């Protein structure tokens, strides 16, 4: 750009622009900005998929459908987010509700939990170690399936997703005392089932 007798240099910002917060993106969704939903999806798709796969105990294709339904609800409900918890816990709460409705509508459906945990790769693994690990994962999967939906959600949120009790309670819309009771019951049931060798 030229000014009288001078050449003005173009200045680049010293740092890249700060990405929008999740809260700002939700506010943008509330006024119809579809690109904001895409950014929220990119940020939260993977942890939400992992969370729903653990509480719904369904095949991967069903889990992906539940994740998509969750983000549709996020889009519809964006204006109702009031910032009482984190956006992540709010999205997980929606995912828990979407999963609950799915489970209720699929009476007598056989659930199987795949990929409950990532198995660490070791340089040298003995065959009996692999068998023992696989058996433990199978036992834990079976024990998780025996929990009620509410107990499973509390356990996965707090013990697997490492969400704070406050955020987990807000995510599923219960008091903290209720959450702690569900978590206590889930841990006790899992411990008893694993010690008894549930298959």
In short:
The chain has 199 residues and is an all-alpha fold. It is 65% helix and 2% strand.
Remind me, CATH topology of the largest domain? Answer: Rna Polymerase Sigma Factor, Chain: A
Radius of gyration: 22 Å
Number of beta-strand segments: 2
Number of domain modules:
2
Q: What is the N-to-C succession of helices and strands?
A: EEHHHHHHHH
Helix content: 55-70%
How is the largest sheet built, in terms of strand order?
Answer: 1-2
SSE topology sketch:
Blueprint: E1 2-3, E2 6-7, H1 22-30, H2 34-56, H3 60-77, H4 87-105, H5 127-146, H6 149-160, H7 165-172, H8 176-196
Antiparallel strand pairs: 1-2
Helix pairs in contact: 1-2, 2-3, 2-4, 2-6, 3-4, 4-7, 5-8, 6-8, 7-8
Characterise this structure:
The structure is a single chain. This protein is mainly α and 199 residues long. The protein folds into 2 domains: 20-105, Rna Polymerase Sigma Factor, Chain: A; 124-199, Winged helix-like DNA-binding domain superfamily/Winged helix DNA-binding domain (Arc Repressor Mutant, subunit A, Orthogonal Bundle), CATH 1.10.10.10. It has helices spanning 22-30, 34-56, 60-77, 87-105, 127-146, 149-160, 165-172, 176-196, and strands at 2-3, 6-7. The protein has a two-stranded antiparallel ribbon.
Name its key features.
199 residues, 65% helix, Arc Repressor Mutant, subunit A, 2 domains, mainly alpha
